[in-house]
Amino acid sequence: MMGSASLKNAALAIAAGAFAAGILMVAQGLLTSDADAAIQPALKLQPVASFDKIKNKSQRAVALFQEAGKVINSPRCMNCHPATERPTQTDRMRPHQPLVVRGEGGMGAPGMMCTTCHREANFDSAGVPGNPKWHLAPAEMAWQGKSLGQICEQIKDRKRNGDLTLAALVKHMAEDELVGWAWSPGTGRTPAPGTQKEFGALIKAWADAGATCPKG
Amino acid sequence: MIRLEKSFVATELPRAIARMTVEDATRLSRRSILKTGAAGLALGVYLARGNKAFAQQPPASPVNVAPNTFLIIGSDNTVTVLCKHIEMGQGPFTGMATLVAEELDADWSQMRADHAPSNPGLYKNLAFGVQGTGGSTAIANSFEQMRKVGASARAMLVGAAAAEWNVPAEEITVQNGVIRHSSGKEGRFGEFAEKANQQPLLENPKLKDSSQFRLIGKEGVVKRLDSAAKSNGSAVYTMDINEPGMLTVLIARPPRFGGTVASFDASATKAIPGVVDVKQVPMGVAVYAKGFWAARKGREALKVTWDDSKAEKRGTAQLLSEFRTLSKTPGKIVKQEGAVDAEFAKGGGRIIEAEFVFPYLAHAAMEPLNSYLKWDGEKVVSRFGSQFPTPDMAVIAKVLGVKPENVDLKTILAGGSFGRRAQQTTHIAFELASVAKAIGPGPGVKVVWTREDDMRGGYYRPYAVHKMRGLVRDKKIVAWTDTIVSQSIMKGSPFEAMTMKNGLDSTVYEGSNEIPYDVENFRCDLHQVEIGVPVLWWRSVGHTHTGYAVEAFVDELLDAAGIDPVEGRLALMSKKPRHAGVLKAVAELSNWKNAKLAPGRARGVAVVESFNTFVAQVVELSMTEEGPKVHKVWCAVDCGVAVNPDIIRAQMEGGIGFGLGHILYADIPLEEGRPVSGNFDTYRSLRINEMPEIEVTIVQSTEKPSGVGEPGVPPIGPAVANAIAKLGLTRPRQLPMVPGASV
Amino acid sequence: MTQLTLKINGQSHSIDADPDMPLLWAIRESVGLTGTKYGCGVAQCGACTVFVAGQPVRSCSMPVSAVGADEITTIEGLKSKEALAVQKAWVKLDVPQCGYCQSGQIMSATSLLELNAKPTDRDIDLAMNGNICRCATYVRIRAAIHDAAKSLEG
Lengths: 216, 743, 154
What we know:
The complex is a heterotrimer of chains A (about 220), B (about 750) and C (about 150).
Chain A: H1 2-32, H2 35-39, H3 57-72, H4 75-78, E1 88-89, E2 94-95, E3 108-109, E4 112-113, H5 148-156, H6 166-175, H7 177-181, H8 196-208
Helix pairs in contact in A: 3-8, 6-8
Chain B: H1 6-23, E1 34-35, E2 71-73, E3 79-83, H2 92-104, E4 111-115, H3 120-123, H4 138-165, E5 172-175, E6 178-181, E7 186-188, H5 189-196, E8 247-252, E9 260-265, H6 267-270, E10 275-281, E11 284-289, H7 292-301, E12 303-307, H8 316-327, E13 332-337, H9 340-346, E14 350-358, E15 370-375, E16 380-384, H10 389-400, E17 407-411, H11 427-439, E18 445-448, H12 451-455, E19 464-473, E20 476-487, H13 496-499, E21 500-501, E22 504-505, H14 506-509, E23 521-529, H15 543-561, H16 565-571, H17 577-589, E24 601-610, E25 613-624, E26 627-638, H18 645-665, E27 670-671, E28 674-675, E29 693-698, H19 716-726
Parallel strand pairs in B: 1-2, 3-4, 8-18, 16-17, 20-23, 26-29
Antiparallel strand pairs in B: 2-3, 5-6, 6-7, 8-11, 9-12, 10-11, 13-23, 14-19, 15-16, 15-18, 19-20, 21-22, 24-25, 25-26, 27-28
Helix pairs in contact in B: 1-10, 2-4, 4-5, 10-11, 15-19
Chain C: E1 2-8, E2 11-17, H1 23-30, E3 49-52, E4 55-58, E5 71-73, H2 81-92, H3 102-115, H4 121-128, H5 138-152
Parallel strand pairs in C: 1-5
Antiparallel strand pairs in C: 1-2, 3-4, 3-5
Helix pairs in contact in C: 2-3, 2-5, 3-4
């Protein structure tokens, strides 16, 4: 049936993404001779220093962004950067239930705003995540369905990144509290890899290295 | 599963029920219909805010009610009907009141309703012989009885007025609650209620001819009696019982059906503020606390080691594989006609085979299961949405060791049921009494199931497989077999004797053994399997799966024969005029023949009879990335005499929505015996954005009225499947159609 | 346990509660306003919807200590003209069946009409799909919202 087939396809796409991330990690594992890390799930981030050996600045920037991409590709970030007006949820990235939409300012629809369920903090006894700034990324910041290279170009583009300079972007990634939620998402949700500090450092190093984006 | 001794459920309980039914008067006593001014039940003592959910205002004094009445007429002219059926949404409060008001010639604005107390002699369901609600029987079994109540009361009021005015009763008329004499004298019911009690009761009063009805079957004159209270928060459900000193009880139940407590450590639980006590009970470990939150935190802190040695450990994947294997062999014959095997062996024509798979389903009523009881060692007061008060009462008496007559059980409003509160094993009442007994007489106990408890608590719609085989030759369906593999609902229950023939449970195969189509060579057989997962009737019971299998399969066979689904069905319905009637009606309503559909849209049809009510539905849908999108449903229903047309429409609308949500999304998978889905995030429910537009037509009928609570459910699934097939996609044979919501 | 003061429907209530207890149970059990229902406890069904500072909130997914001084409105305290129009339409069209979810439905519908005087079917879907009705009274919920909106046109 068409419906279930397309659902299966969605699941496959996610699995393929995870598989790609695994490949990436194997490569870095070999680079750092950390064989153990290669078979671990992508829960850690390589420190910026481990990329110093890549002498070509542009190649280093690409590698740094790919490392940061483990965070960007995490369901914690992806779920609220949907391709449509509707967010996804859970580690499986299924369509958000109930049906919610971006609405004005990314805050939901009249009568059912994000804040109807999501409050200032995670509320584990109800299984509902929260943050004072909880909202959906605007449409021009959609990540789902895009390659890491496309996302990279997008977040550098001041027309599509909320008019942030590269410096401001680095600060946002490193310090914003809603971004930071990805590392303390509450019970039942896999946190983004590493820490926000490590992620911020990778983004900063990427910017410092010229902010070259991965191809494709 | 239930820890209540099997022997009690199977043998003692039916006897206890029979005893209660016989001991109480089985006919209305002289004074039983109309009562005023007598000392009676102290309604509302147990409820902090009073049990007035049903009535806009409680009747003014001096009105009280003896427990053996159907009617209370207040001095304020209110007429309160005591409804012997539980109001869980299907409208019996309004239905019973309509029947009474019709014959009483009351004005609709003076009508009220409340639940009758538990008294099987007086308030038994005439279809069951015990007090209870189910099988869409409320209107069907009460149609005459309640009209007689109204007609008798009218005669008594008229008699009282005649005596008061000293005029012949024949010269008195009653209209919209006003009693009038040609001399100009007039009065209202309240004035004569007291004196009416002295009037003789007519056992068989003359009832109106249907041509005289001014409420029954009429549009716009009857409004639901419970809408206002359910729109301002004042309706009181079991969950809302909040008596001073009451303890809220959450029970840690085994994660697998059939598991038992090996040991437990309650030290952390007892340290939680608000937790009062922890006791082992037959179904697990009970945490008694001041309020829900303390009970929940207390239960979270509880450490229980479960003994799973006797538990059901199979998952649904394994069950499916076992069911499949069984379905390839013939089961016990339920019905056989013609020479099926010979016909298949003859050769020629086209053989079509299909396997249909149906998941476990939870009822998941909006109000999770709960119950309330308080006792002093002798006398018991219990309140909850009991759908079968008679057996529930018997089991409470048995567990607490009190006389049944000392159990004051009253059903109160239930936030939905869909069959779940109709407990064939009485496990809710048994659990309630066990919890009360464990802590001893004194404080009231309210047992609350969390949503997760409710959803993982079993009593599901049984898992089922239908293996079907059909032979189409010369544009005709010449042979049909249906091998069912499923679990018995009734086995081991007090109703076993009523519903099982030759050891086979009719609720498993109903609808599959009697298909509405003329097929000369026919066989329906059944493998009734034993599984340690408790199962239960679920809104429309066996028809939930048999209706789907039969209607999706006949559509496939007609398609193979190249015949229109409506024309093809009608041609095979020579012995089924009422099936044909609703099918024609829905075809006309939906303009089946000539409708021009937008691109990407298709229509499907299905017709299913359940509980003697006939329902046909046409759906129009399109396919989206997220599954079928049903745009509109046309529905024709024949339920005999239509008592409350708007409630019938509401039940069709609700039945369609309920059925649609489940066939699209719902599934309770088991992993090594443990139910996976626990809440609406993993047991997806239909939401308003997925609700189709619905148009209902009620087929005019003079047949006896039949129920509408369940029959709206079965046709929607196969109608959706058949429309999907029309789009050129595979007809879904395994439900739910959109899998994956349970992970 | 913490001493808290809740302002509900214009009245102050002092309660002693676990700060992590959902607002729902404070309303239902500490204060005794039982029109607000427990249906799922995980913000999936909407039966527990109340207004906090005038905005609809699932009271099962907000800890009572997070309310602070904000005014809470429950089904029992609805007073706005939109609320009254919604309740009137609910009765007129006989929307409820079992009724258990309807307090939450009415809270959401009221909020919708307070923010959007003339909602389309799509607006209704977006505002109301967080409220599950297992009886599936959705056809009438939709009709009643349109009816209430029409009655408010004057």
